[in-house]
Amino acid sequence: MGERLEHERQSEESFTLAPVDDTAFDDRRRSFEEVFLAEYQPMVRLAVLLVDELDVAEELVQDAFVKLHQRWRRVDRPGAYLRTSVVNGCRNELRRRKRERRARRHDAPLAAVELGADEMLDAVAVLPPKRRAAVVLRYYGGLSEREIADTLGVRPGTVKSLLHRGLAELRRTLGE
Asked: Which CATH number fits the domain that encloses residue 136?
C-alpha cells in the first residue's frame, strides 16, 4: 500500500497521473465509439434500402449497435457483425410486416404495384426480402458473394441464385 501511495505522489508531481485500472476499458470504449462514428450512417443507409422507412431503419441500426456493445469483447469483426445484425433485423421487420398484411387482407386480391418517381428504388422495394438483401448488399454495399453469403447465412451458390433472380425481376419490373 505504501508503495502505491509513493507511486501516486511521484505521478502527481510529474503531472502524469493516469487511472491504473481503466486504461484498457477507455481504449476499448474509444474503439467502439470509432466504430460507431464510422459505421452508423452506412448501416442506416443499408437498412433504409431494405425497409424503406428512415425511422424504422434508425431503430434497427441502434438495436444492432446495442447488441454489438453487449458482445464487444467477443466480436472480432465489428463491421461484419453490424452488417449481419442490421440485415437480420431488417428481415425480421419485413416478416412482421408481411404477417400484418396477411392478417389485414385475408381475402383481398393483391393490388398491382405502381412505380413512383424513383423507379429503381420502387422496383427494389417489391423484391422478396432475401433477394432485396442480396441485391442491395452486392450493388449498394459492394460486398462479394462470399461476404453476402456470410451476412445472410446462406451458401455462395444461393447468393448467385438470389442475385440472378433479383436482377431478372428488376428487369421485368423496370421494362414494363
From this structure: 1.10.10.10
CB 169 within 8 A of CB 130: no
Give residues with Cβ within 8 angstroms of 86, minimum separation 6: 43, 46, 47, 60, 61, 64
Tell me what pLDDT residue 17 has.
Answer: 33
At 48-58, the pLDDT tens digits run 999 999 999 99
DSSP state of 142: -
Confidence class of residue 4 from pLDDT cuts 50, 70 and 90?
Answer: very low
Whole-structure pTM value: 0.61
Q: Are residues 76 and 89 in the same domain?
A: yes
Considering the domain architecture, whether residues 100 and 123 belong to the same structural domain is answered as no
Range of the domain at 60: 25-111
DSSP 72: G
Which one-letter amino acid corresponds to residue 38?
A
DSSP state letter for 140: I
